[in-house]
Amino acid sequence: MPVTDITTDPEALTMTVTAEFAAPVERVWNAFTTPRQLERFWGPPGWPSTFREFDFTVGGRAQYFMTSPRGEKSSGSWEFLSIDEPRGFEVLDSFVDDEGKPLDGFPAMRMSFTFEETSTGSRMVNTSYFDSADALEQVVAMGAVEGTRMAMDQLDAVLQDLREYAEGKGTRVELIDDTHVRITRLVNGPRELVWRAHHDPDLVRQWMLGPDGWEMTECVMSTTVGESYRTSWAPVGDTEGEPFGFEGEVLLVDEPRRAVTTERMQGQPIETINDLNLYEEDGATLVTVLIEYPDLETRDMILATGMADGMEASFARLEHEVLAGR
């Protein structure tokens, strides 16, 4: 958890975020000044950023938007006011529309980033300066404190070599809050093929089987927003268990980076939102699934079924039977 403190000061009209990283200043600097790396953490889980412009010069601008699992967009703009590599930079941060024009009724703020060496790595201090107490209160009311904490807490995965961070560690389950769970698994294979393995019915049938002793009896996939999918499984031979399946609708597709669907067990009313993200580095792909549950009880009930163990068995099969040799 990199964030060590978030302080709002109504008298000084500031919000200050302090975070510690087990990485040198130069590595942290690169993460904050390289668009493809920024996209991996600038935005809380479920709202990843896309930087469509990044002119990292004094007077230049960065334009980005964050996209929710249901496709809503929130756009922002940075105007670079000063750059002191690798010690810090300062921007004018604004809420903007799709054309990059400031939104009426939303505050702009001056925002500084400073980076300094520590005995264990480095420290970042991010201070936002507001024009009024009302502007500070408005941004806090929009969820800036918790959103910033969750966004910065994604940086550990960015700062490390991807294989060092995740290879050999299996399927990992992280409880983000009462209704959100993040599942990660590194698989050895290119992102395009991993994407196909998640959406091509012929490939899906080869690996998405869970523990041994089960077969997929139905596999209807889609990558078209608004369409439905349906998957079903049944035990084979002496394997104990009852047939079951899932179904849902496609909410968002950004091939081969992201796909969001609803999911419910066939015949059951409980629905989750499953947000699949794929990131490739050095020939390996980090699969991240952010699951949103309706409540804490549902979250704990589903996790208790051994879902993560079944996913690990499937991911291992994906590597050994689908990706190997391709």
From TrEMBL:
| Coiled-coil ranges (or none) | none
Domain of life, source organism: Bacteria
State the CDD domains in the record.
Answer: SRPBCC_CalC_Aha1-like (cd07814)
Q: Please state every residue range assigned to the domain named Activator of Hsp90 ATPase homologue 1/2-like C-terminal.
A: 23-159, 190-320
Q: Name one Pfam family in it.
A: AHSA1
Residue ranges of the TM segments: none
Family listed:
Belongs to the AHA1 family.
- Any idea what this protein is called? Uncharacterized protein YndB with AHSA1/START domain
What organism does this protein naturally occur in?
A: Microbacterium pseudoresistens
Q: What is the lineage of its organism?
A: Bacteria, Bacillati, Actinomycetota, Actinomycetes, Micrococcales
